[in-house]
Q: What sequence folds into this?
């Protein structure tokens, strides 16, 4: 009979993903490319937010990697608007991970000093758990989802560097308690920038685009930081 | 929701350390899983039985230590478990802030033969 022995491991299950994410981040940083991981529930308005932001980026070239379980509807729409967009289909997986993103980033030609948006799978849970090489985690929430979301899905709000509260034009028609929402956001995250926007009217996107342009400017000067 | 690929990764790490220890099979894997890690222990256990077949981990016992998430009160310093729909400290009512307690997700040790 063989002896049973204990082996001390202490290895994170996501260490390999995080290592690849750091590699992607380093590669993009070297080229002055700001990488934004766009997270949010299905229907929060992630693609609409991207369309509104990109047209206000004032000469900064933007690229989009669209993550979807199936279909390329959003990619086709962005391409139709003249936006350089690329599709990742996960065929069931609930989030993008770093190896998927690395493979796509390695296969496309990204210009220097630009901004790369990666629209994650519509899901308020899993995308927050996986780094994909981003410098900025952008969370798109909307008033129609309800003001309790920071309390129910705390990790996404905790990890965000930037929160876009979308569909504010619908506030008169829904019971959205903004004070309760912001109390939850600030308990979890003291530093995230919060922008109130409407994909319908365009309200709020000028300010959000200006902040991203400033972050991209930092990227060009090599002052980027990894996302949380 | 993503326990299948995660379980594959657990098996890959355990096999690597088993081989490093110059052993032939894994008998036990001790996992530490924070309740805020987003991973469900029962699902990992279910997938583990199926995926580990034919690997060095086949038949291994999977032991999962769960860690309850804790917030830290910025006012009085108390560590506490939050109540649903609230972040308030039970001691002083100030809103607690997130900590890393409850986000753990790692293999602590394995037993090999």
A:
């Amino acid at each position: 009979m063989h002896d049973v022995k204990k082996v001390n491991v202490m290895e994170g299950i996501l260490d390999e993903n995080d290592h690849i994410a750091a590699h992607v981040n380093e590669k993009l940083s070297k080229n002055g490319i700001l990488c934004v991981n766009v997270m949010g529930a299905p229907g929060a308005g992630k693609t609409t937010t991207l369309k509104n932001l990109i047209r206000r980026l004032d000469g900064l070239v933007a690229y989009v990697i669209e993550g979807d379980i199936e279909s390329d509807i959003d990619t086709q729409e962005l391409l139709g608007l003249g936006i350089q967009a690329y599709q990742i289909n996960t065929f069931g997986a609930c989030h993008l991970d770093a190896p998927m993103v690395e493979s796509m980033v390695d296969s496309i030609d990204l210009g220097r000093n630009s901004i790369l948006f990666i629209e994650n799978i519509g899901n308020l849970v899993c995308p927050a758990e996986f780094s994909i090489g981003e410098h900025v985690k952008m969370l798109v929430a909307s008033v129609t989802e309800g003001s309790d979301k920071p309390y129910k899905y705390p990790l996404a709000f905790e990890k965000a560097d930037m929160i876009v509260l979308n569909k504010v034009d619908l506030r008169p028609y829904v019971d959205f308690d903004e004070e309760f929402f912001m109390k939850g956001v600030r308990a979890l995250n003291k530093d995230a920038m919060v922008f109130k926007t409407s994909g319908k009217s365009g309200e709020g996107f000028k300010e959000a685009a200006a902040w991203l342009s400033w972050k991209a400017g930092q990227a060009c000067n090599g002052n980027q930081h990894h996302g949380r | 929701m993503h326990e299948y690929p995660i379980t594959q990764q657990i098996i890959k790490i355990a096999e690597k350390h088993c081989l490093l220890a110059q052993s032939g099979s894994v008998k036990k894997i001790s996992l530490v899983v924070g309740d805020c890690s987003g991973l469900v222990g029962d699902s990992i256990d279910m997938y583990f039985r199926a995926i580990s077949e034919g690997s060095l981990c086949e038949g291994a016992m999977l032991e999962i230590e769960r860690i309850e998430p804790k917030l830290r009160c910025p006012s009085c310093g108390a560590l506490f478990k939050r109540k649903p729909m609230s972040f308030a400290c039970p001691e002083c009512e100030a809103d607690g802030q997130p900590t890393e307690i409850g986000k753990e997700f790692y293999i602590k040790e394995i037993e090999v033969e």
Q: What stands out?
A: The mean pLDDT of chain A is 94. The CA atoms of residues 63 and 116 of chain A lie 5 Å apart. The radius of gyration of chain A is 18 Å. The beta strands of chain A are 5-12, 34-40, 62-68, 84-89, 115-119, 136-142, 162-166, 193-196.
